[in-house]
Amino acid sequence: MERINVTKSFLPPKEEYQSYLTRIWDSSWLTNNGPLVVELEEKLKQYLNTPYFSFLGNGTIALQIALKALDLKGEIITTPFSYCATTTSIIWENLVPVFVDINKEDLNINANLIEAAITEKTSAIMATHVYGNPCDVEKIESIAKKHNLKIIYDAAHAFGVKYQGKSLLDYGDISTCSFHSTKVFHTVEGGSIICHNPELHEKIKLLRSFGHILDNYYVAGVNGKNSEFHAAMGLCNLNHLESIIQGRKDIFRIYDSLLDWNHLEKPTEKTDNLDYNFAYYPVVFESNIITDRVIQALNKENIFPRRYFYPSLNQLTYLTNYQSCPVSEDISSRVLSLPLYPDLDHSIVEKISAIINSNI
Fold first, then answer.
1. In 10 A of CB 358, how many CB atoms?
2. Cα–Cα distance measured from residue 60 to residue 63, given in angstroms and rounded to the nearest whole number
3. Where does the record place the catalytic residues (predicted)?
4. CA 187, CA 159: separation in Å to the nearest integer?
C-alpha cells in the first residue's frame, strides 16, 4: 500500500496553475506585491468580508508582525496546546509567554483561568482556535476589555470557519492565518493578518515590507512578503475550496461512524452558529501507552498519523521556567491526528478505523 500520511496537499489541475504562470512570465513581476498578490488579497477580502487583509510569507511571520504591530510589551497570556510557532513567535519578539491551561472538552485555552494569570506586565492574550474550533471569543473579549488587553488569535486552522455568521478570523484585534501546504486552503507557503482599522492595516503593510515605501523609511520592518507563484496557487485553490471542505467532511463522517467511542474521545465541536472547515481529525486515547500502540500498528501498515500537538508547549526545552498545565500535558501525550484529506480513499479510512478499534 502507498504511504498514507496525516495529510496530503491539494493540487489544482496543472493547466489552471499554468495559466497563471503565463501571466507571470509575460509580466516578469515575481514578487514585491505583484498583480497576482493584489488579486488574491482582493478575492480573500471578499471571501472573508473584511477590508483589512494582508497576505504574507507564512503564518509564523504573521504572528511576529502581529505582536510588533500592536506594540506589545512584557507578558502574553497564551495556550500550551498549539503548534510551537505560537510560543516561539512570542519569544522571538522578546516577550514572555504565560501559559494558561486548556479545556478538556475542546482543547482551547480555558477562558475561566485567564484572569488569574493577568499581572501588571500583561499586554495581550494570544489564543489558538485549535483544530479550527472557536475559542470562547465572547468571554475572552470581555476579559480583554476589562483589563485593557489586546487579543491576537492564532487562526492557523480556522480558514473557512464561520461563527455567529461571520468568519472566525474576524474576532480579536488581530487574527493570523497559515496558508501552508498542509492547510485546508494553501498557497504552498503563506499566511495572513486580518485587523479592524486602517491605521493598523497600514502599519502591518509597512512591517511586512522592510518598513519603507520607496525612499521613505517609517519603521524597522522585515521581509514578510510573498511571491506571485504562491499567490497563483492560492488563486487556483480558492476556486476549489468548497469541494475540498466537502471531501474532508465526508471522511470526517466515516471516522465518526466507525470508531469505537467507548474507548476514545474526540474534542467537542461547537454546533451552534458554526460552519466548520473539517481541518483535522484528532482523537484522544485512554492512555499514552494505547496511543503508542495504535501508532505502531498503523505504521506497520504504512499509515502515519501525527501527535498533533506534542509536546505541550509549556514543556518546550528552551523555555527558561516551567509553568504547570496538567490538562494540556496529559492530552498532548494521548492525542493523535488521523489521516484526513479530500482524495483519501474511503476504504483506507475504514482500514484505519479497524486498526484503531482492534488496538484500544
1. 10
2. 5
3. 183 (proton acceptor)
4. 13
Q: What is the pLDDT of residue 35?
A: 98
Question: How would DSSP label each residue in 191-216?
Answer: EEEE-SSHHHHHHHHHHTBTTEETTE
At 269 the pLDDT is 76
CA 41 to chain CA mean position, Å: 19
Q: At what angle do helices 241-258 and 228-238 cross, to 10 degrees?
A: 60
Half-sphere exposure for 169 (CA within 13 Å, toward CB):
27
241-357 in CATH: which number?
3.90.1150.10
pLDDT at 1: 73
Q: Is the backbone of residue 348 left (phi > 0), alpha (psi -120 to 50) or beta?
A: alpha
Classified by CATH at the fold level, domain 14-238 comes out as Aspartate Aminotransferase; domain 2 (3.40.640)
Q: What is the pLDDT of residues 270-327, one digit of tens each?
A: 778 899 999 999 999 999 999 999 999 999 999 999 999 999 999 999 998 999 999 9
Catalytic residue (one of 68, 150, 162, 183): 183
Residue 124, pLDDT score: 98
For the chain, give every domain's residue range.
Answer: 14-238, 241-357
Ranges under pLDDT 70 in the chain: none
Residue 21's pLDDT is what?
98
Residue type, 283: V
Q: What is the DSSP letter of 141?
A: H
pTM for the whole structure: 0.96
Sequence length of the chain is: 360
C-alpha cell belonging to residue 192: 495572513
What torsion do the CA atoms of 301, 306, 10, 28 make, to the nearest 10 degrees? -130
Cα 289 → chain centroid? 28
Active site residue 43: no
